[in-house]
Predict the structure.
Amino acid sequence: MAELKKATDPVGTAKTKAEEKKTADKKSVEEKVAKAATKVAADVKTGLTKAAEVKNEVVKAAETKAAEVKAEKPAKKAAPKKTAAKKEAAPKKDAEKKETVKKETVKKEVVEKVEAPVKKAAEAVKKAVEKAAPKKEEVSEKIYFQAFGKEVDVLAAVKADFEAKGHKLSEIKTLDIYIKPEENAAYYVVNGVGTDDQKVTL
């Protein structure tokens, strides 16, 4: 009986250590994600500020250019004939079209300059989250049953029995094992579902 107690104590200690490590890993990941999010938020804010500055500069440049174009136009002389009035109307329409095209070009430039930092920030967030994600470490798990002069790895026997019944180990989310020494057997419940068939002879 003392041997059985000794065998179970290290399992409890190992389980506690594994839980502590898992909690520490989770906190570490949360801290890394928070730092990355803060950095990305700062980058996005900087990008938006720069985008606003660029937009203001582009708008000012467009206004200056428009003023220069208007200043370059010579003063129109009043023409006594209708044909001259028609000729003057045509350049007005061309100037309006050119100004519309310039405005659209300016808008495109502003959008491109704003989108670039935002895309960069989104990629940085994605990379930071991927880096911060914890790597799953394989935990070595064994449960031994020692009695009647023999030793059985109960966990390995249960997993082998589960697979032998046509299941995959990846299906297991929770596994409960009940050892009944008087029956020389171990019953197991997978994902909360158990049957009399889920039994391993020890």
User: Anything to note?
Assistant: The first helix runs from residue 2 to 72. The beta strands are 144-147, 150-153, 175-180, 185-190, 199-201. The chain is about 65% helix and 10% strand. The chain has two domains: 20-132, 141-201.
